[in-house]
Amino acid sequence: MNPRDLFERYAGAVAYIEVKTPRSDRSIGSAFHIGNGIFITARHVVDGNEILSICTTTSTRIPDPNGLIRVNGSEDKYSLISPSEGKIKSGPYYHPNPLIDVAALIVEGIEAPTLPLGGHLDDWIDDHEFILREVVVMGYPPIPFSKEPLLIAARAEINAVVDKYTGGHPHFIISAMSRGGFSGGPCVIEYDFVLGLVTESLTRDNSPSELGYMAVLTVEPIFECLKHNKIVPEMQKEGWNDFWDTE
């Protein structure tokens, strides 16, 4: 699937999270919907911070036989999902390992498309299979002089798969510029599933994040977080034969 199609299909699934830090500073991160009102984000976006709001900003058309929208004279019908503000119903839920930068929130009040998580668990990743594959990353890096948060989408390619010497799960290095605010956003691969979660900029010597590499944490720790907290959405269980069953 080409990048524009991925954006049109899933932009409405990406929300911004506004938080207040213990120093009373305000900051914005990103999150994405994976079904049942569950939004995934990076742990460092919400951990220790007060969540002020979670909102989507982009309208999305979804196929609906009872919808009222037709596109370019097509017989297919669509419904329109409009931007909305949600309310945190429960969470944040964290990965059992506090060093893993994953969190989940259960949100009500936002109707959003569902992003499918990929099935590439750590032991199944063939590094060379992913190199130079095209991806789309979406999130809410701050735009100077903008009066409101804007969803930013970037086309990129996978440059490398990294196992950090500090341990943990594999990270994909992608060619998009790393910017604050993308943290917690999805990286969607051309095969039409979530490759992983934007977590950090890999830098050295305390350099600005823009000088580092955008790192995308793979999906296995997302599944682990959901299973640990017994909140795996039914849609994400499909095809796994109870592998992630939380009962």
Task: Offer a quick outline of the entry.
The protein is mainly β and 247 residues long.
Provide an overview of this structure.
With 247 residues, the protein is mainly beta. The protein has one domain (3-237): Thrombin, subunit H (Beta Barrel). 12% of the residues lie in helices and 38% in strands. The longest helix is centred in the C-terminal third of the chain and has 9 residues, at 220-228. The mean pLDDT is 86.
Relevant terms:
247 residues, six-stranded antiparallel barrel, Thrombin, subunit H, mainly beta, 5 helices, globular
Mean pLDDT: 86
Described by the principal axes of the CA atoms, the overall outline is globular
Total domain modules: 1
Radius of gyration: 17 Å
List the helices and strands and how they pair.
Blueprint: H1 3-10, E1 14-20, E2 26-33, E3 38-41, H2 43-46, E4 50-56, E5 60-63, E6 78-81, E7 85-94, E8 103-108, H3 127-130, E9 134-139, E10 152-162, E11 171-177, E12 186-189, E13 193-202, E14 213-218, H4 220-228, H5 234-237
Antiparallel strand pairs: 1-2, 1-4, 2-3, 3-8, 4-7, 5-6, 7-8, 9-10, 9-12, 10-11, 11-14, 12-13, 13-14
